[in-house]
Amino acid sequence: MSSPVRHALAVLALLCAIVVVLDGRGADARTEPVARAPDRGTFTFAPGTHPLDRQAVLQAVAAARPEARALIDRIDGRTTITVGTPSLPQAAGTARSLPDGRHELTLDLGPVSRGLGAAGVARLVLHELGHAVDAALVPADLAARLDALVPAGYPCGTPGDDRSCLGRSAREERFAETFAKWATGDLGITLHIGYKVPPPRVSLDRWGAPLAALARP
Q1: CA pair distance 51, 83, nearest whole angstrom
Q2: CB-side exposure of 78: number of CA atoms within 13 Å?
Q3: Alpha carbon of 20 to those of 55, 152, 212: distances in Å?
Q4: Is the pLDDT of residue 21 over 90?
Q5: pLDDT at 197 (0 to 100)
Q6: Strand 91-97 versus strand 103-107 pairing type
Q7: To the nearest 10°, the Cα dihedral for 159, 147, 79, 117?
Q8: How far apart are CA 126 and CA 120, in angstroms?
Q9: Tell me, what's the pLDDT at 152?
Q10: Is 165 exposed, middle or buried (0-12, 13-18, 19+ CB in 10 A)?
């Protein structure tokens, strides 16, 4: 890979941080898990959302594995999606779970689509939806078990080691990033976007097996 391409990807990675906002309740705050959303429906898109942006989001969800779609189906009726620049600097997406069970996602699809194409858009969309699934549906004990299968990363500041700080992010980010990988079936080694969360210690299918069970009627 040429130096200009590596530089461009590095800049894109910096711009494409993916963040979860927990409504000021702290990193460990969780909404009460619900077995099934009472108001299944479809996403609410903010007024003025371009039809192509709406289509890109829906295509990313439609292409996800069936078990991931089943979980997303349980929260989509309570999820509002805005396509645009998130309020947090250098973020390509944010997810906010509110106390009343609603979820608000902001997705900056343009830069991600131009830099990483459909695969990057899918990773962004499913990462942020992963936050909503985590907050609404995943019990704390299951969240802890899933997180135990994802390496915490390497110590920051190791001289000469470009793996430094790999995966040094909140549990919620590790879940959302691994959920997106599981949903797409793609580890996304070449996707320089968001948190550099290491792959789980087991296969994606094995990591997501409890989520697949959770998705069953």
Answers
A1: 11
A2: 24
A3: 23, 18, 23
A4: no
A5: 83
A6: antiparallel
A7: 50
A8: 10
A9: 79
A10: middle
Lookup result for tokens 């509110």: 98
Task: List Cβ neighbours of 121 (8 Å cut-off, separation of 6 or more).
Answer: 56, 60, 109, 112, 113
Domain limits for position 52: 3-215
Residue 93 β-bridge partners: 18, 107
Total tally of structural domains belonging to the chain: 1
> Are the beta carbons of 136 and 34 closer than 8 angstroms?
yes
Average the pLDDT over 139-153 and give the result.
93
∠ CA 102-107-108 to the nearest 5 degrees? 160
Is 90 exceeded by the pLDDT of residue 195?
no
Residue type present at position 201:
R
Query: If residue 60 lies in a helix (H) or strand (E), which one and from where to where?
Result: helix 51-62
Residues 37 and 176: their CA atoms lie apart, in Å, by 19
CA distance 161 to 76: 41
d(CA 188, CA 69): 19
Contact 153, 167 (CB under 8 A): yes
For residue 33, give both structure tokens.
């898990």
Say which residues have a Cβ less than 8 Å from residue 148's Cβ, sequence separation at least 6.
Answer: none
Give the CATH number of the domain where residue 110 resides.
3.40.390
Q: Which two tokens stand for residue 161?
A: 């080691």
| pLDDT at res. 194 | 58
